[in-house]
């Protein structure tokens, strides 16, 4: 716990039991077979037993685990075991009661030890003990922790000290895996390494004759990003595809806005498709803004075995490593990871330009080919006029005396209105490379700009004074890298059923996305040009359709 504590999340912002189960059901349906409830502290939720029981009913879910501080474990474990809890991790950084109180900011050491023994008595084996090792605090207790495994079926997991907000991380405080291993081998030279399980985050060792074993989580000194298959959902409903990444996507907001299962899968798939090859490294992570650890792993979803990847091109630099088999997909609906590697889905596909450089491409829609109203930036076909657009002989947003006035659309018929607009952001070579490689310190510029474009479309009537509020049925934002110009080409498509057009929504979407790109990149370069904001097409109005050639 950070010394200054952490702000409590308002109850209304937390996922409800129903929302947790809805998301869990969605992930399990797509092949996830292990769910771990973590924290913060999951056992303070009054509905935690009910959540475990209902998760246990999900067909295909093999394991339900919990990571807890252990203080309430002895009291709740019999109920949790009956509900279906299959695995237990207990966070414990010291075996000295006074030091425990200093680290955790509360009493309770003896309750934790009671919880560990209760888990053993109820047949859990191994009971995992998570110990974060910090120089000057508890590295002198390594041998004491290992000694526990002589007579108890424990897996003591030594975790390298990792940088998070509020924990005052310093490289000098980190005790590396190799240093810890050397210390243990001096005491137990017979220490032997066990085979690593696929997608395991731990390097496991055993002392011959001991009931338990020990493991090392080497996130900093020897990362395991290439085989990581974990996804995390925070208690307030944000999806994190990397523990050390600051990027989050709110699934809660989409759920509460009525998103369909298909739409949620597109959002999740896009986030997973953006997962980087590896984290930024301990020194860069220490400079990044991220939640305190106590606020991150509030609800963790993982697969014991990674999902299947359709055919991967050997030249593809952007596929998510480690996601290889197990997850099944319903066809043809795009799902969690489908399309991240398949070229027919442009949501995330590398493209070769004339210069031979790789191009990142991001779309909020899973497959532009299925949406005829949306002009794909990947297409080389030119749009054509469907006929001349009749124009008014006067400005429609002024009255007879020249004062600003909103147009009365009450008498117009409701028709399907579709508009597409585009914008271009010239980044320059330095900023372009950072965006292309997703290395900006602020985060993933393309994802943030795409979300901003969608938000901008929805808020157009609040930004443009005389625009009517339009209930949009669909917004799509695509961003494509153009390495020949060191530019990002943005395309926004809006659709609605109503008496007024949506071209302002499309134009606002493209403009806001381009402004967001500028904001994401301005620390790198101020020589960024926003331009070419224009309407590409407009259909459904009384004055005819428009298509720019």
TrEMBL record:
**Which intervals hold domain Radical SAM core?**
1-211
Tell me the GO molecular function terms.
Answer: 4 iron, 4 sulfur cluster binding; cyclic pyranopterin monophosphate synthase activity; GTP 3',8'-cyclase activity; GTP binding; metal ion binding
The protein's enzyme class: lyase
InterPro entries, A to Z: Aldolase_TIM, MoaA, MoaA_twitch, MoaC, MoaC_bact/euk, MoaC_sf, MoCo_biosynth_MoaA/MoaC, Mopterin_CF_biosynth-C_dom
According to UniProt, this protein's pathway is: Cofactor biosynthesis; molybdopterin biosynthesis
* Chain residue ranges for the region called Disordered: 352-393
Q: Which reaction does it catalyse?
A: GTP + AH2 + S-adenosyl-L-methionine = (8S)-3',8-cyclo-7,8-dihydroguanosine 5'-triphosphate + 5'-deoxyadenosine + L-methionine + A + H(+); (8S)-3',8-cyclo-7,8-dihydroguanosine 5'-triphosphate = cyclic pyranopterin phosphate + diphosphate
Keyword field:
4Fe-4S, GTP-binding, Iron, Iron-sulfur, Lyase, Metal-binding, Molybdenum cofactor biosynthesis, Nucleotide-binding, S-adenosyl-L-methionine
Keyword NAD set for record: no
Similarity remark: In the N-terminal section; belongs to the radical SAM superfamily. MoaA family. In the C-terminal section; belongs to the MoaC family.
List, alphabetically, the PANTHER family matched: MOLYBDENUM COFACTOR BIOSYNTHESIS PROTEIN 1, MOLYBDOPTERIN COFACTOR SYNTHESIS PROTEIN A
Name it: Molybdenum cofactor biosynthesis protein 1
What organism does the record attribute this protein to? Pteropus vampyrus (Large flying fox)
The gene behind this protein is MOCS1
